[in-house]
């Protein structure tokens, strides 16, 4: 990986297809040659149109948007590799781990073959084998990012930045420890977030871990405690459960993934892999200790839980420490994230912030959109606003995705609704693939037949949801699914079945209304 910076002159060609490993290796080699030929930024290059701090999805999207518009762009990255949390410790590793576990355990084949198919395969799996796959994906993605930045003429400095004022950043370079100063007409903060590690938790990052260090554990434990019923805790709980680990999932809330539609949450709990998860809600206060036999967690009601490994997954915090943002006139909100307006401007008009550092929704997908829009705002070329309708994807086993409102939200607003459902065990594609757990739930307005929300748990959930997303964007009625043809058999067909289910209920309701009207007329 090249340190700092990538220069425009003398750059190697990186126009290649990354599916071919030899060509990927050639690009990595060319990047290494850049390291040997140039490690300085000339004085004339220290003024930039855009300085982007961070190379996660938000920062990269901002950098590419500005560069493709002909702006001079500098990217700062303090870590040893590009891609931020998304590539190195978050989205990519956790999803790669999930796919590797599904593949190596044969989890999806247990219905096709025999119920104990998984347990026979699990003995062959080790953390070392899983880490090899994680490492391979990281290296390939980092090389792809490097070449994308380089061929778009984007300079890179590996170092830690701190503000001197609203348009000047001092950078302490990782290589050699040199301090340099750069200036930017526009500066975009995309520094992401890190696990919240309270000081009273005795982390050793071997037996008591967070979402970063869990990827470094040396062996697959037989037992695990996961503290936190949010997305990260739920995803890892199901991944390790699929490996045969006995997981105790402790949630301080009333129910697991409380922002989901209640039926989807229940369906997940009913289909925890191998029945290997014990879920406990409203766990209250706790005390964590390191004991001789491993981590020990004691609840306020004196219940004690022990396991080989404890994963603390209670929240994340914005990466603002060390940036000296107060020197740039930037403030934090009540939740300690950077405060921005709808244009992603901070309290200093030429400085923008995007991604996890500004808080919700903290998704890689939304961060990409925010980065792009912030750069367009900085160039005063924005023509659209941040989308109001976008999907959420949760990579549990089975996976979950949704768009629009839940049944609870609809009823709270007194909407007149009917519910259409398609159960995966009745879906031909689910029977064929062996992934027959789950359902698709559709929230429909009774009077207009408009689709208000779609919630999916099961195979293909995070892919199928985009069809529903398009329907919601254009205020489509259920007839769009009923009247059109779907490939058969597919997971997408669940949309048609759920729409038919809702239509049948609407028809039944209409008949009830007609009968009531006739009865009232007779009485009158």
Task: Provide an overview of this structure.
There is one protein chain. A hairpin with a 4-residue loop joins strand 12 and strand 13. The longest helix has 31 residues. The protein contains 14 helices and 21 strands. With 524 residues, the protein is of the alpha/beta class. Helix 1 packs across helix 6. The N terminus is likely disordered.
Give a brief outline of the structure.
This protein has 524 residues and is of the alpha/beta class. The protein contains 14 helices and 21 strands.
Q: Secondary-structure blueprint of this entry?
A:
Elements: H1 21-37, E1 47-53, H2 57-68, E2 73-77, H3 84-88, H4 91-105, H5 117-122, H6 127-151, E3 155-165, E4 168-173, E5 179-189, E6 193-195, E7 208-209, E8 223-227, H7 231-242, E9 246-250, H8 262-270, E10 277-280, E11 286-291, E12 294-299, E13 304-306, E14 309-312, E15 316-318, E16 351-353, H9 364-378, E17 392-394, E18 400-404, H10 407-412, E19 417-423, H11 428-433, E20 439-445, E21 451-457, H12 461-473, H13 479-482, H14 493-523
Parallel strand pairs: 1-2, 1-5, 2-3, 5-16, 7-14, 8-9, 8-14, 9-10
Antiparallel strand pairs: 3-4, 4-5, 6-15, 11-12, 12-13, 17-18, 18-21, 19-20, 20-21
């Amino acid at each position: 990986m090249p340190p700092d910076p990538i220069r425009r002159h003398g750059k190697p060609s990186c126009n290649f297809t990354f599916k071919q490993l030899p060509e990927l290796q050639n690009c990595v080699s060319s990047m290494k040659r850049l390291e040997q030929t140039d490690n300085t930024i000339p004085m004339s290059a220290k003024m930039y149109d855009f300085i982007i701090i961070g190379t996660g999805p938000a920062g990269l999207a901002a950098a590419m948007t500005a560069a493709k518009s002909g702006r001079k762009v500098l990217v700062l990255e303090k870590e040893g590799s590009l891609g931020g949390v998304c590539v190195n410790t978050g989205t990519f590793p956790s999803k790669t781990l999930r796919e590797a576990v599904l593949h190596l355990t044969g989890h999806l084949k247990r219905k096709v073959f025999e119920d104990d198919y998984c347990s026979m395969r699990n003995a062959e799996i080790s953390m070392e084998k899983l880490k090899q796959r994680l490492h391979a994906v990281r290296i390939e993605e980092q090389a792809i990012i490097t070449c994308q930045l380089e061929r778009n003429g984007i300079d890179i400095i590996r170092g830690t930045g701190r503000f001197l004022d609203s348009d000047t950043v001092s950078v302490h370079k990782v290589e050699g420890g040199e301090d340099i100063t750069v200036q930017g007409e526009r500066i975009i903060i995309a520094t992401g977030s890190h696990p919240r590690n309270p000081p009273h938790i005795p982390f050793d990052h071997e037996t008591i871990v967070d979402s970063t260090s869990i990827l470094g554990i040396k062996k697959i434990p037989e037992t695990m405690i996961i503290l936190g019923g949010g997305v990260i805790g739920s995803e890892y709980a199901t991944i390790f459960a699929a490996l045969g680990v006995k997981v105790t999932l402790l949630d301080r809330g009333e129910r697991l993934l409380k922002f989901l539609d209640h039926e989807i949450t229940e369906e997940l709990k009913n289909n925890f892999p191998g029945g290997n998860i014990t879920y406990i809600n409203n766990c209250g206060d706790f005390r964590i200790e390191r004991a001789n036999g491993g981590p020990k967690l004691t609840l306020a009601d004196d219940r004690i839980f022990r396991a080989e490994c404890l994963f603390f997954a209670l929240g994340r915090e914005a990466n603002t420490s060390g940036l000296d943002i107060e020197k740039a006139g930037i403030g934090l909100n009540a939740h300690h994230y950077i405060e921005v307006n709808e244009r992603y401007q901070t309290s200093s008009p030429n400085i923008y912030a995007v991604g996890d550092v500004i808080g919700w929704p903290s998704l890689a997908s939304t961060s990409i959109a925010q980065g792009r829009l912030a750069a367009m705002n900085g160039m005063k070329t924005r023509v659209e606003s941040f989308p109001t309708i976008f999907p959420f994807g949760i990579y549990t086993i089975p996976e979950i995705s949704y768009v629009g409102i839940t049944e609870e939200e609809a009823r709270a607003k007194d909407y007149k609704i009917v519910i259409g459902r398609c159960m995966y065990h009745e879906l031909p594609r689910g029977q064929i693939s062996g992934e027959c757990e789950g359902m698709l739930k559709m929230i429909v307005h009774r009077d207009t037949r408009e689709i208000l929300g779609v919630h999916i748990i099961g195979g293909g959930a995070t892919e199928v949801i985009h069809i529903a997303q398009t329907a919601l964007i254009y205020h489509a009625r259920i007839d769009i699914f009923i009247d059109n043809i779907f490939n058969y058999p597919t997971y997408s067909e669940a949309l048609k079945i759920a729409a038919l289910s809702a239509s049948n209920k609407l028809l039944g309701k209409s008949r009830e209304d007609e009968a009531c009207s006739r009865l009232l007329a007779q009485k009158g």
